[in-house]
């Protein structure tokens, strides 16, 4: 059995074997690092993915009573500039009348009640509902209407009628100025 603990020459200095061990293990560590680092680096999101993680919307370009569709993370996202009557109508609905109870105040940012930002896919099968244009069929509740299977959303994006089980989702967003919202 080789004695691995005796590594010094008689004068107490490092032996040639000690130097070879240090060089070998250093080479192994550097080799392992150069093989593992690209693998770990490949798991980070690419620059184009990071660029799509947020989007900024100038809400001053959205006329009152209308909406626009912006793409965020490859999906349509609705930005609606609601009228005072639409806000009042949304807030007058009792929670007991909703399939997915949520108040209007929970779905908008305080002080920016006129702007509603929601996901733009029906929660039934992922269709894109109508309702952003003033001339669109907005359904029985004045919000959005999915003609594919008949889901009706109100002016707060809450499901009111039809097969869709949930409200239109409200993404993470914040207003970074009086007129610009950052989604994501």
What this model shows, in words?
It is a single chain. The protein is built from four helices and nine strands. The strands form three sheets. Strands 1-9-8 form a three-stranded antiparallel beta sheet, with no helix packed on it. The radius of gyration is 30 Å and the shape is elongated. Helices cover 24% and strands 22% of the residues. With 184 residues, the protein is α+β, with helices and mostly antiparallel strands. The mean pLDDT is 89. β6 and β7 form a beta hairpin.
Summarize the structure.
This protein is of the alpha+beta class and 184 residues long. It contains 4 helices and 9 strands; from the N terminus they run ααβββααββββββ. The chain is elongated.
């Amino acid at each position: 059995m080789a004695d691995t603990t005796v590594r010094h020459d008689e004068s107490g200095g490092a032996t040639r074997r000690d130097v070879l061990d240090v060089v070998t293990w250093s080479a192994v560590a550097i080799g392992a690092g150069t093989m593992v680092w690209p693998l770990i680096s490949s798991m980070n999101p690419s620059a184009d993915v990071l660029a799509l993680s947020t989007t900024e919307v100038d809400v001053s370009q959205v006329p009152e009573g209308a909406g626009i569709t912006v793409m965020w993370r490859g999906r349509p996202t609705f930005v609606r500039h609601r009228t005072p009557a639409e806000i009042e109508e949304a807030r007058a609905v009792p929670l007991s009348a909703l399939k997915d109870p949520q108040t209007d105040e929970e779905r908008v940012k305080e002080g920016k009640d006129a702007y509603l930002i929601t996901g733009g896919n029906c929660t039934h099968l992922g269709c894109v509902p109508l309702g952003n244009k003033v001339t669109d069929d907005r359904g029985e509740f004045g919000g959005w209407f999915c003609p594919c299977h008949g889901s009706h959303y109100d002016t707060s994006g809450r499901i009111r009628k039809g097969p869709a089980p949930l409200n239109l989702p409200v993404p993470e967003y914040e207003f970074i100025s009086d007129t610009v919202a950052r989604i994501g």
